[in-house]
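Lecture 7 notes: from sequence to structure.

We start with a single chain of 291 residues. Read the sequence below before looking at the structure.
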Amino acid sequence: MRAVALITCLFVLTMAAPVFAEQAQPSGAGENGLKISLGYDGAYMHYSEDQPFGAGVFDKENGWMNGLSAEIRYDRAFSYPLFARVDFDYLDSNHVKYIGGLQTGNGTIVPYNATTPDVFYKTEFDFGYKVWNPGRFSLAPYLGVGYRDWVRGQDTLPDYRETYTWWYGAIGMEARCRATKRLLAGVDAALFLPFGQEMSTSISHTIDPATFHIKSRPGWQVEVPISYDIYTTGAGRFAAFVFLTPYYERWDIGQSQTITLTVNGQPVGAALEPASHTDLYGAKAGIGVNF
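Now the structure, written as tokens:
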């Protein structure tokens, strides 16, 4: 599903380029045409889950994660200065440190510390309008929609796998500055509004698959994208660039309702998904081309 969305957006943006193929005049931060970028994504993940039956922290996860980042973006720098983009981010680690406990079906908690795998996927499509576009600057509010998938743990007792999924809307603001002819810098901040949040698990196949409906809580993100053109044609119709984008990303979830756990359809206990938050302190770096 994620791959199909990425390929579809690439096709749409590529086919849109000829529609806006009129002669562009430099404006604002001077962004124009189709950009495709690919690079490394690395982040330190900190996760903290509240006590489900009292105050304090139930468990924590901390560790460095490695992955990939890709973006396809189209800027129209004339008449109506619009932009559209699709982002795909992937983070993975087999060495996240887990400190805490495990819930059992009868409500007790067993202390448990381990090294565990975590995998994040995130796909987002944004559309914005440059409301302020003078000189070397541009300012653009935007709206977006995204999908997030997090696979936590592994199906090997006493650990077990949990899969968190949800859609979200994004409301953001992007500011860009053309510091020099080749150097472009900016700040991008967005509020995330999740919906359809769920966590599913089978506790390493010891129970029937169970789904917890999580209460939605807003999240947010701040990025500082910086790019530098390492090669441009004389007519300025093609450029190759390198980029660095430090970022911070925050997600919060609310506690779910208690559900009944079953084995072969027969009740064996009850459980809930506690409230928690996840912080990512990261940076993306790579190369791209601008047509």
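The two ends are 28 Å apart (CA to CA). Keep this in mind for problem set 3.
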